[in-house]
Specification:
By secondary structure, the protein is mostly helical. It is 86% helix and 0% strand.
Length: 91
């Protein structure tokens, strides 16, 4: 039977880093979204419309990335919790 090992502190640290990155992406998205909205007030025409479509797609992509980051962070935290519970059975 193979020996399984996890450095729970390292995995938990990564979880926090991923969670912080997801939060930072969300904050920057808000700034970008406001900038795009402001730009729409000073630029009009078909090229602006095309840019707005692309910008909204990019913002949706960032939102998905932030959501996936949050999900990964939570999964790592749950995994650490499960390992700690399993490990406590051997104490």
């Amino acid at each position: 039977m193979p020996i399984l090992h996890m450095d729970t502190d390292a995995v938990l640290n990564l979880s926090y880093q991923v969670g912080r990155a997801a939060a930072e992406i969300r904050q920057e998205m808000q700034v970008l979204s406001q900038s795009v909205y402001t730009l729409s007030n000073v630029w009009q025409g078909s090229s602006c419309d095309a840019f707005m479509v692309e910008a909204q797609q990019a913002l949706r992509g960032l939102a998905n990335l932030a959501s996936e980051g949050t999900t990964l962070s939570r999964r790592l935290q749950r995994e650490v919790s499960e390992w700690e519970v399993a490990g406590s059975a051997f104490d």
